Amino acid sequence: MQSGIASALILIDRDEMRAEGEATDLNHGMPFVKPMLVVAGGYERLAGCDVIVICAGANQRPGETRLDLLHKNAGVFRDILPKVVAACPQGGDPDRHPVDILTEIAAELARWPHGRVIGSGTLLDTARFRYNLGEFFDIGHGATPALANFGSPIVLLVTGAVPNFIAAAACACAMVVARVLTPPQDSRGIDWNSVLPIGGMIPLSTATATATAMTETGAAQLVADRLIASVGPSSPLALLAAPFVLTATLGQIIGNPATALIVAPIALARRSRSASRRAPSR
Fold first, then answer.
1. Chain centre distance of CA 102
2. How far is residue 92's CA from residue 54's CA, in Å, rounded to a whole number?
């Protein structure tokens, strides 16, 4: 009702008065949610429904085992499913305990194609298991997924499946998805005093690699020759202005340290070529 994904909600209960009361309560709250039709009725009203959620079943009584509860709820399903299938052949979503077994029973009773019957999963059992692990190892209840999320990137790093930064980012995102940390907590855990200098070193390392490649491949010499050819060797001021303009332009884009590393090989090559051209012939 809050998300507005359905246009109608039909409540069916063995106790018709209870279903009517539940429908009335939901209708009274309609001003606070998105408009939809909420009514109580019989199985015949299921015709044309897109989704059927089956929440019927017996509660577990003191002294009963989970197997006893299974047999009771299986009997409830054997009574309900033929009526549901007769009224609406689209399928449903069984939601009773034990969920997985009753989902299989519902699929056998309904004889629907594979995938039509969907169980709601065992989220409660997973939560219980996490709680018991925390109690047994005397750790916080959020530590279990935290350890799992922390161990996964280590495996990725050891195997070399992904680069280091991808493994670290995946771990941080998994912590948020698993609700071990909230996004604000994740953000506060970042040491910005370390991140910012590392980020500043990225263009510096790139510039170092570029400068080395320019020197080894002769690109620096080529750029220097083009500068000298464009301004002419007879104008010292022009020879000084050309690298200045180049340096000032690159400095506005990639910063001063990176610019110095890139322009330095060009300047040295220009100086060497200019000196060779000025050298007296013998």
1. 32
2. 7
Model pLDDT, residue 279: 46
Two structure tokens written together for 242: 């050309």
The SS3 call for residue 255 is coil
Question: CA 85, CA 52: separation in Å to the nearest integer?
Answer: 10
Rg (CA), the chain: 36
Strands (E), 119-222: none
Relative orientation angle of helices 192-217 and 219-231, to the nearest 10 degrees: 70
Closest CA to 52 of 17, 10, 20: 10
Say yes or no to pLDDT of 51 above 80: yes
Q: CB-hemisphere CA count at 13 Å for 44?
A: 0
Is 67's pLDDT higher than 90? no
Quote the DSSP letter at residue 104.
H
pLDDT tens-digit series, residues 188-237:
777 766 666 656 555 555 656 666 766 667 766 777 677 667 766 556 77
